[in-house]
Amino acid sequence: MGGGLEARRVFAIWSNALFFDSLRLLLDRPGIELVGATSDHVVARENILGLQVDTVLVEENEAGDIPEGTLGLLEAGPACVRIIRLSLNDNELIVYHREKRLVGNTSDLLQLIIEE
Amino acid sequence: MTKPIRVLIADDHTIVRAGVRLLLEAEPDMEVIGEALTGDEAVAAAESLKPNVILMDISMPGLNGMEATGKIKTRFPEIQVLVLTMHRSDEYFFEVLKAGASGYVLKGAETNELIGAIRAVARGEVFLYPTMAKQLLQDYLSRVKGLESLALPALTPREKEILHLLADGYSNKEIAERLVVSPSTVHSHHSNLMKKLNLNSRHELIQFARQRGLLRDS
User: Fold this and answer.
1) DSSP label of B87
2) Is the peptide bond preceding residue B203 cis, with omega within 30 degrees of 0?
3) Closest chain B residue by Cα to residue A21
4) Do B169 and B63 fall within a single domain?
5) What is the CB neighbour count within 10 angstroms for residue A90?
6) B146, part of any domain
7) Nearest CA in chain A to B24
8) For a pLDDT cut of 70, what percent of chain A falls above it?
9) Over residues B184-213, mean pLDDT
10) Which of B2, B7, B37, B146 is most exposed, with minimal Cβ within 10 Å?
11) What residues in A contact B23, CB-CB < 8 Å?
């Protein structure tokens, strides 16, 4: 999973359709493969592990939260799976459990997905 | 071929800005001519780029989207401002409309709703996101209801009925026949109406009814 020349497999869990449509276009480039996306956290929890993803993008809901069940599942998953939390409220990317980054430009997100 | 709609995106959120640009650039009738990260930049870009439509976020550093909208509409009334926000609250909604925005779209909208909204405001129309339009309608109805209650203070249902009939030109005797009551009862209601509405004649009563849309079409 996630070899140097292989595309990074990304799963997106979104709250706002417009935000996801934007993300989908931003991720449409060599080196990144969007293998699944849903706004339903139950569906996400059922699918993520089986899809052997490298990165999970999770958009916060309107209240600025991510359901505990989803976060717990992701954090309990393989350590190599990168979890990136996105928010419409803040111009920030939060990467569990390592760091919190301010988004300077779109390439920051793409770099986070691609980097080993 | 018609000219494309020239759009300026004003949003401090990097990913939203970049993503919306890609979404709009996929439309043959739209051209993204610039981006602004603050309200101040949006005002400056409105002046230098002369867009047809500005997609305006509300929460931005410095001058916010509402203030920027007010400034832009004052100086460049021909530019249409479409607010694109995640705020659902009435407060923001009414404030941006008062500032002169032509529409209000939530970031939770579908892409085709945003595209349709941009086209609508570019044509000079108003676009309100359906749930927000419902709020506007409810606010309007509550205001109308408030005005009605002010205009017709403490009238009983019977008095209102008689007011309608008087305004329609019926005499006290005719009203009595229609309502199956005695003429003296109608006279009594008529007198009470004059007193409550502070009117002195049937003519004033009819004018009052006309001003408040109480006259029925003949």
Assistant:
1) -
2) no
3) B111
4) no
5) 16
6) no
7) A22
8) 84
9) 79
10) B2
11) 18, 21-22, 25
| CB within 8 Å: B108 and A17 | yes
What does CATH list as the number for A8-114? 3.40.50.2300
Answer positive or negative: Cα dihedral of B174, B179, B183, B185.
negative
CA-to-CA separations, B28 to A5, B1, B22, B81, B110, in angstroms, rounded: 35, 11, 12, 21, 18
Domain containing B181: what range? 152-211
Closest chain B residue to A90, measured at CA = B13
Helix ranges (DSSP H) in B38-180: 39-49, 65-75, 90-99, 111-122, 130-151, 157-167, 172-179
Which ipTM score applies to this complex? 0.77
Nearest chain A residue to B19 by CA distance is A22
Of B86, B113, B140, which residue is a domain's last? B140
Residue A88 contacts B where some CB pair is shorter than 8 Å: yes
> Is any Cβ of chain A less than 8 angstroms from the Cβ of B112?
no
Average pLDDT across chain B, whole number: 85
A22 touches chain B (CB under 8 A): yes
Assigned domain for B161 exists:
yes
The answer to whether A70 faces chain B, any CB pair under 8 Å, is no
Q: Are residues B90 and B157 in the same domain?
A: no
Render pLDDT for A2-23 as a digit per residue (tens, 0 to 9): 445 688 999 999 988 888 998 8
Most B CBs within 10 Å, among A14, A16, A18, A28, to test the B interface: A18
B176 and B114 within one domain:
no
Overall average pLDDT of the B131-156 stretch: 67
Q: Is residue B179 within 8 angstroms of chain A, CB to CB?
A: no
B131 and B185 belong to one structural domain: no
